[in-house]
Amino acid sequence: MRYNDRQDSRAPRLHEEDSTEARSLFRALAIAAVVIAGLSLLVWGGFSWYLSAFSPRPSPFMEPRQAPETGIQLQDDPVADLDEWQAASRDHLQSSGWVDRQNGIVHIPIDQAITLLVEKGVDQDARAGEAEP
Predict the structure, then answer these.
(1) Do residues 107 and 97 touch, judged by C-beta distance below 8 A?
(2) CA geometry: angle 26, 30, 33, nearest 5 deg
(3) Cβ atoms of 79 and 62 closer than 8 Å
(4) How do residues 50-60 score in pLDDT, each as one tens digit?
(5) CA-to-CA distance for 111 and 90, rounded, in angstroms?
(6) In the chain, where the domains are located
C-alpha cells in the first residue's frame, strides 16, 4: 500500500487539492478591463477638453510672408552668384591693374607677388604696423 492510498486524515497532503476558481480569475480580469477602459476614456476626454479650451495660436512662421518693401531682393540663383563672384575674385588675383593711380599703387598677380616676396623678403617698415601675436 502506498502512502497516498491510505485513508488516514492526519496524513500530510502531497499536493494542493483546491485549485483557483476560474470564476474569480475571470471576475478579476473583467474588473481590470473595466478600470483600464474607464481610465482611457477619462484621459481621452481630458485631452479633448484641454485642446478645445486652450487651443494654441497658430505659429507666425506658418503664415505666408511677403518680401519687405525696402528694396531688398533675394538671389534668384545663389549657386550661380557664388560661382560668378569666385570667378571675378580669381580673375582679380591673376591680373594686374591700378589700385590708386595718383599714389602709384598697383596690384599684381598673386603668383608674381609671392615670387617677389620670396626674393626680396619682407620690408621691416611694412611689418612695423603689424601687431605681435
Answers:
(1) yes
(2) 140
(3) no
(4) 888 887 777 77
(5) 12
(6) 22-55, 78-124
Helices (H), the chain: 22-53, 78-93, 110-120, 124-128
Asked whether the beta carbons of 107 and 99 are under 8 A apart, the reply is: yes
Distance from the Cα of residue 130 to its chain's centroid: 42
CB 122 within 8 A of CB 129: no
For residue 88, what is its C-alpha cell? 571675378
| Residue that is written with C-alpha cell 481610465 in the block | 39
- C-alpha–C-alpha distance, residues 80 and 70, integer Å: 24
Residue whose cell numbers read 471576475? 27
Pick from 91, 122, 96, 118: nearest CA to 109 = 96
Predicted model pTM: 0.36
What's the pLDDT tens digit per position in 20-40?
Answer: 677 888 999 999 999 999 999
